[in-house]
């Protein structure tokens, strides 16, 4: 009567049923091993390879930065109005996703979201006037990322919107105490963040501002904070990769908040409306996960000689990264096109290039990086579970460390691949995998699918060379 | 711009980090393949092997029976008082888990639960009087399974308790229309079903009877039914095996019911109490999963020549099975001891033998049978994810079919191994794996851990021979 009976299978005759699947799985994994074609470091570029070799001072810096990332303790502490809490938020300012961009270069869904926000704020009376305002310089556009914020897809955040407030409750000596902000998730389909701005979209945003936001504020204040790191860790054990699959995280969020919501709000009808809205949205948790990743990554910004990426973001036109040792500087390239599964009636040709701050999840080492532990996601973004597992294993090759808190049961509880090192990306030519929603390329339509893509290579290479130069290599 | 970018990994250099884990995984799987030591059918018992060979008439019967199991559509339709809805429930009757058993042979936790139920019903004023009543024949004890019911652990169900009502909404020609019943889950630790009956246990049961049950009744009536098959399928995609791991199922249950609970109940404080109780219990969903499995399996009871198992249950003293082609007849053996992980302060020596109707989950092909898709469960029951996957693959060898609705993402969405065939169990000597909670062997204490065990072999062999005899083989 000792040991686990599962260990006592030796000598048991195993029938064939099911073995074919296993064989496939072995072949898939074996096949991967077989195709590890050696390629010269940095794609055969001897000069770059030499530079990387001389950047060993990054190691100690990365170790210190990664320790801050490990120590991060993102906690949901409040819901507040954007203009009251987001640092530097001003009247007639609209925050957007990705690196900086002017109206002229904005993609369709980004312009659509801006029009919607202008109408919501009452700065224009109709679409035409809103477009004119957007174009004539009367609105200041700034990246969410310049204001301790993130937003999925267009990421458009205007002054009167309610935002989640996340605080990194790590000790100050480990970079803690900082806060990050994110608007509330509207659901899928015709929603502002995908570029829709019809009356139903604006009505929903008004209700979120007037009823949902205050209800959630009362809830979280009654709770005295909710540990989002713990919630994400649990959701990963339930097969979420917490970027495009937030099913378990959203359900667990509801489980943890509902008793307090009911207590704090009191009125059963209002509780029911809030519960119905949150329950009706598989992705509601995303707007807690994103600012938590942001608050975690900000803790390792600005570490001298550090070659770790603390921002990856897209505005629908450009993809950009920022590297710890290079401060606020963006390195950009044209945004690529996600490949994926489309809702009925839409197809690849309708897709807008990659958009949104949600790649902050991959920057932390979640999303596409942990797809292997979230095999059911392939039903939403395409591919197979074996490919998802392969993707996760590949990401270990470009990350500095493994998370101590986010573990992957299917890999015997190995930590998630965490903290992208620009040196490793350039050295291995392995580019970060990102799961993403797909917006229609025209304003006013909304989400049309979800898929997967690789980050473009150029920003990583340019950042590497800039860091080398700064280090005097 | 076609195909999935995950498929385009050929030629990419893969770094070594993480490969060790993969190698282990391959070795684990390869190791399993290597140890498929051939053993003679039926353990070398030529007579039994010959009987099995002559039972080919089972095939057609099993096919028909399995079709009913596939078609089952268990739906939560109501919460009612046991004596009002459970067929044959009478005053001074207590239902219990497993095969029939008299007071004299009941284990400690079973007696403890009976004492608690007698006190709850007000049939005795104290523990001593309750024990006397239990012993002197004034209470009739019958298996839940004889009354279209199931109950976890002691399974004790008394007339005034609220019960979940599950209806199999398959067409009548596929065995649909039947109902199954199960009490409500009390949580872990000191609870009636693990043999505890202190005042806090009884107070909780009274609150469940007077407030929680009616609140859930109002909820499900407002909802007009909840498709439990769909909910289980989703939970499996979120890493539950829905026997000992019900985290995702419980959270999803809360997600789906809360808006209706708030609407139907109205009073925020009462909603909060109900929500807090349900949210505080990782296993709340178990008492929906079990009657759903029961309602599904009942649809294939009594099919002539059918060698599929439709009941596996334990009362803490005996383990018993029932086979479709043999009607109501039980085949029993002494209950075995689960091996597992214990709560602080308890150890293996404190454990009671295997107890509860919850093996109905494994009978359907879930629980221990799908552990491979629920790798995080090993933190609760012991073992490793690789062993869990091996267990699932082994169960394909003793089951008749694969579920069309319950699929396992990690096995590329293969259907769960479904419907145990007594012929295959005897032929292969592979015994069903059961995940289970572990009760203290003494009355009045409660749960002390959770673990895994194998069903005993004798009932399967005896049932096989009885079926062969009935078939004239």
Describe the structure.
The structure is a homodimer. Chain A has a domain at about 45-65 and about 300-470: Alpha-Beta Complex (v583 fold). The first copy, chain A, is an alpha+beta fold and about 475 residues long. The first copy, chain A, has 16 helices and 15 strands. Chain A has helices at about 20-35, 45-55, 55-70, 80-85, 110-120, 125-135, 200-225, 230-235, 245-265, 270-280, 285-300, 360-365, 380, 385-395, 420-430, 460-470; strands at about 75-80, 95, 140-145, 160-170, 180-185, 225, 310-315, 320-325, 330-335, 340, 355, 400-410, 415-420, 435-440, 445-455. The model of chain A is unreliable at about 1-35 (pLDDT under 50). In chain A, the strands form five sheets. A four-stranded antiparallel sheet of chain A has the order 5-4-1-6. Chain A has a four-stranded antiparallel sheet with strand order 9-8-7-11. In chain A, helix 7 crosses helix 9 (about 245-265). The radius of gyration of chain A is 22 Å and the shape is globular.
Explain the layout of strands and helices.
The structure is a homodimer of 473-residue chains.
Chain A: H1 19-34, H2 46-53, H3 57-71, E1 74-81, H4 82-85, E2 93-96, H5 108-121, H6 127-135, E3 140-143, E4 162-168, E5 179-183, H7 199-223, E6 226-227, H8 228-237, H9 247-265, H10 268-279, H11 286-298, E7 309-315, E8 318-323, E9 331-334, E10 339-342, E11 355-356, H12 360-364, H13 378-381, H14 385-395, E12 399-408, E13 414-420, H15 422-428, E14 433-439, E15 447-454, H16 458-471
Parallel strand pairs in A: 2-3
Antiparallel strand pairs in A: 1-4, 1-6, 4-5, 7-8, 7-11, 8-9, 10-15, 12-13, 14-15
């Amino acid at each position: 009567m000792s040991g686990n009976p599962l260990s006592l299978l030796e000598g048991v005759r195993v029938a064939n049923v099911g073995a074919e699947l296993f064989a496939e799985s072995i072949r898939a994994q074996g096949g991967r091993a077989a195709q590890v074609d050696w390629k010269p470091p940095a794609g055969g570029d001897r000069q770059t390879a030499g530079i990387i070799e001389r950047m060993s001072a990054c190691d100690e810096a990365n170790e210190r930065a990664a320790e801050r990332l490990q120590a991060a303790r993102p906690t949901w502490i409040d819901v507040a109005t954007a203009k009251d809490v987001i640092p530097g938020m001003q009247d007639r300012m609209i925050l957007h996703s990705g690196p900086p961009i002017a109206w002229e270069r904005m993609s369709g869904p980004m312009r659509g979201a801006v029009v919607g926000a202008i109408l919501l704020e009452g700065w224009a009376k109709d679409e035409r006037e809103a477009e004119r305002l957007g174009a004539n310089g009367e609105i200041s556009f700034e990246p969410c990322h310049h204001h301790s914020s993130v937003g999925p897809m267009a990421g458009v955040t205007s002054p009167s919107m309610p935002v989640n407030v996340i605080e990194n409750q790590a000790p100050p000596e480990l970079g803690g105490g900082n806060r990050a902000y994110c608007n509330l998730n509207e659901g899928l389909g015709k929603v502002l963040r995908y570029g829709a701005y019809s009356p139903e979209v604006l009505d929903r945003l008004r209700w979120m501002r007037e009823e949902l936001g205050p209800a959630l504020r009362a809830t979280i204040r009654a709770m005295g904070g909710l540990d989002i790191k713990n919630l994400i860790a649990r959701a990963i054990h339930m097969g979420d990769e917490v970027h495009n699959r937030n099913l378990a995280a959203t359900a667990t969020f509801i489980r943890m908040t509902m008793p307090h919501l009911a207590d704090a709000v009191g009125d059963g009808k209002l509780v029911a409306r809030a519960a119905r809205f949150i329950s009706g949205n598989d992705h509601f948790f995303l707007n807690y996960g994103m600012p938590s990743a942001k608050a975690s990554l900000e803790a390792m910004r600005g570490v001298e000689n550090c070659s770790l990426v603390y921002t990856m973001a897209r505005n629908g036109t450009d993809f950009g990264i920022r590297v710890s040792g290079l401060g606020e500087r963006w390195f950009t390239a044209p945004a690529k096109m996600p490949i994926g599964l489309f809702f009925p009636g839409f197809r690849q040709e309708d897709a807008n290039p990659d958009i949104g701050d949600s790649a902050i999840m991959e920057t932390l080492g979640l999303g596409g990086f942990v797809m292997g532990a979230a095999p059911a996601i392939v039903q939403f973004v395409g591919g197979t579970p074996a490919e998802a597992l392969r993707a996760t294993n590949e990401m270990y090759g470009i990350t500095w460390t493994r998370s101590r808190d986010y573990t992957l049961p299917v890999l015997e509880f190995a930590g998630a691949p965490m903290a992208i090192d620009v040196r490793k990306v350039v050295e291995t030519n392995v580019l970060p995998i990102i799961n993403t929603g797909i917006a229609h390329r025209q304003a006013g339509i909304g989400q049309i699918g979800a898929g997967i893509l690789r980050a473009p290579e150029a920003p990583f290479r340019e950042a590497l060379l800039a860091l080398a130069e700064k280090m005097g290599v």
